[in-house]
Design brief:
heterodimer; A: 307 residues; mainly alpha; MetI-like fold; B: 325 residues; alpha/beta; 8-stranded mixed β-sheet; 12 strands
Chain lengths: 307, 325
């Protein structure tokens, strides 16, 4: 177990370095000069050259890379070209909002998704099943921006129940969380239903019934834990993707999060900011899958053994 | 009259399929005496397991018990509400299954799985339940019971897992134990040990209904045998009688298809064809399509189960004519 975690952590570090290298090289080989973008059309050649030298962009690529890598290890992600502040500071303030949004969205999506999936599996092919599966299909196919605008129109604009945008209170996060989590809820519902139905057909479920357990007992103490294994993997992946920034939701609801920061970085050719945000997104995904692995081992003794 | 643990009368199970209604268990009557091992033998798909599940009350939708009654020590149980039925399952009637590999929950310690049955049916504390579980583990000869208690199913061999299954089924001292092909997935030495365990349970007073497709196993442990074909009992008699003078052509066929090591045993015979599709059963005797001695009458009329000698019943016109041979 410990050995496995150590092994996976080493892998994670290697992947991270790979991602840093890849974003670093890609950002430098795309056409266009970030300094020119930053200074605007009217900058004269001398100033551009001076700025380029100041930022170290005239140095050979490998030297630039190692300098960047070392500063990252020290916790210094550089200074944003467009916003003039340290990237670490910008990410810190944006990540709080993204984290809140992701937590709210995940809470909504998983509670709804697992409950629906459970109801569907238990009432297979009957009315509740058909109804909720229809809903989950809607959840999966409805684009986030549409859900967002619907919710804003009904609950904020017409009914005035919740704020339309912003990050002032926890109430501000309810609508964006629903808009963002809607999709994940649909996926979780369908996955829970399928996994549970598969599990309920297993031989050991028959054994549990033969032992004298009722429906609820069979479901809670035998079926659910086995069925949740694949669902759990999916949920961790979902959570890490929620954490790495929800571009559309953050934009529609004016939330200053990682997603918006990333869009800003791309449009401004802001190399340090872009590198910082993509590094964050990758780390979150890697950490997420590491966590999923650990959880999986805790829940399934067969996997614990393999390592 | 000897005390009956199980008395099944005219049990019928129907399944509504897309193509029509089938009867996997059709008017089956059988008895298990207290402290006796009774066998049901037949090919795959003849309704053996379905009969067992019907007795357990584990027939699931779209299947349904549509007729007959089941008496457990004189008490009718098919008409009991599900809640009452559940109290019997695992306590008074229990069942072990064919596949010990998949019949245990892979993410739960085997000890806990046995303990669950104790906690469900008795008012024991957790400590008492654990002690009972360890006792039954020792009784079914699971070595190092304490250590095995904390094992997960995948850490045990097939034989040990089946012992755990038997422990789970026997821990509440049931009146009836149904063993559905308990040794099919195991190798021969383990098979012998498992059969010994069943005999020990029998000696302790539990009635055992042993389902098998192997006549060898039936011959070894059963006192009385029912032969099933296409959902019906086609012959029943004491084990010795069945092996000594089988009357139904199907039983004879089954006996001839047993591998023999005797000298001059010749070619192994088989019964031609397969169990018929229950949706398209022949009008007369359900075995007529595969029977070497089929007559015109067999194709038109269905034979009844008639007693040819005391304790020996056969569902065949030929046996009716021959009488006691």
């Amino acid at each position: 177990m410990k050995q496995k975690i150590a092994q996976r952590s080493v892998q994670a570090v290697i992947v991270l370095i790979g991602v840093v290298l890849l974003t670093f090289v890609m950002l430098r080989i795309v056409p266009g000069n970030p300094i020119e973008t930053m200074m605007g059309e009217h900058a004269d050649a001398a100033t551009v050259a001076r700025m380029t030298a100041e930022m170290g962009l005239d140095q050979p690529l490998h030297r630039q890379f190692f300098r960047y890598l070392f500063s990252v290890v020290r916790g210094d992600f550089g200074t944003s070209y467009s916003l003039g502040k340290p990237v670490s500071l910008l990410i810190q303030s944006a990540f709080g909002n993204t984290l809140k949004l992701a937590l709210f969205a995940a809470l909504f999506a998983w509670t709804l998704g697992i409950t629906c999936g459970l109801i569907c599996a238990v009432s297979k092919n009957r009315l509740p099943d058909r109804l909720f599966m229809g809903f989950s299909l809607l959840g999966i196919s409805l684009p986030v921006f549409m859900a967002a605008m619907f919710l804003q129109y009904i609950f904020a604009f017409k009914l005035h129940w919740l704020p339309i945008s912003g990050t002032d209170s926890w109430k501000c996060f309810i609508l964006p969380a629903i808009a963002l989590g809607w999709n994940s809820a649909g996926q979780v519902a369908q996955m829970t239903r399928t996994a549970l139905l598969e599990t309920l057909a297993e031989d050991y479920i028959e054994t549990a019934r033969a032992k004298g357990l009722g429906n609820a007992g069979v479901l809670l103490s035998h079926a659910l834990r086995n069925a949740m294994l694949p669902v759990l993997t999916m949920m961790t992946i979902q959570f890490s993707s929620l954490l790495s920034g929800a571009v559309i939701t953050e934009t529609v609801f004016s939330i200053n999060g990682i997603g918006r920061l990333m869009v800003q970085a791309i449009s401004g050719r802001d190399i340090p900011l872009l590198q910082g945000t993509s590094l964050l997104a990758t780390s979150v995904v890697i950490l997420g899958s590491l966590l999923a692995d650990c959880l999986y081992s805790v829940l399934d003794p067969r996997i614990r053994e393999e390592s | 009259m000897e005390q009956k643990t199980l008395d099944v009368r005219s049990l019928t199970v129907c399944i509504q399929t897309m193509k029509g209604m089938i009867r996997p268990v059709n008017d089956v009557s059988l008895e298990v005496p207290r402290g006796g091992i009774v066998g049901i033998v037949g090919e795959s798909g003849c309704g053996k397991s379905m009969t067992a599940r019907a007795v357990m009350g584990l027939i699931r939708y779209p299947g349904k018990v549509t007729g007959g009654s089941v008496y457990l020590e004189g008490r009718e149980i098919t008409s009991l509400p599900e809640k009452e039925r559940r109290k019997l399952r695992g306590a008074e009637i229990s069942m072990i299954f064919q596949e010990p590999m998949t019949s245990l929950n892979p993410v739960m310690k085997v000890g806990k799985q046995v303990e669950e049955a104790v906690l469900l049916h008795t008012n024991c504390s957790k400590e008492e339940a654990r002690a009972k579980t360890l006792d039954i583990f020792r009784e079914v000869e699971i070595p190092e019971a304490e250590a095995r208690y904390n094992c997960y199913p995948h850490q045990l061999s097939g034989g040990l897992r089946q012992r755990v299954m038997i422990a789970m089924a026997a821990v509440c001292r049931p009146k009836l134990l149904i063993a559905d092909e308990p040794t099919t997935a195991l190798d021969v030495t383990v098979e012998a040990q498992i059969l010994k365990l069943l005999e020990r349970l029998r000696d302790a007073g539990t009635g055992v209904l042993l389902i098998s497709h192997s006549l060898g196993i039936i011959a070894r442990v059963c006192d009385y045998v029912y032969v099933m074909y296409a959902g019906q009992i086609v012959e029943q008699a004491e084990t010795e009688v069945i092996f000594d003078r089988p009357a139904h052509p199907y039983t004879r066929g089954l006996l001839r298809s047993v591998v023999s090591l005797r000298e001059g045993a010749g070619t192994l015979e088989t019964i031609p064809g397969v169990v018929p599709n229950l949706l398209r059963l022949p009008a007369g005797c359900s075995f007529s399509l595969r029977c070497g001695m089929c007559t015109e009458r067999c194709e038109k009329d269905a034979p009844r189960l008639l007693e040819t000698e005391p304790g020996h019943k056969v569902r065949c016109f030929l046996a009716e004519k021959e009488g006691v041979r």
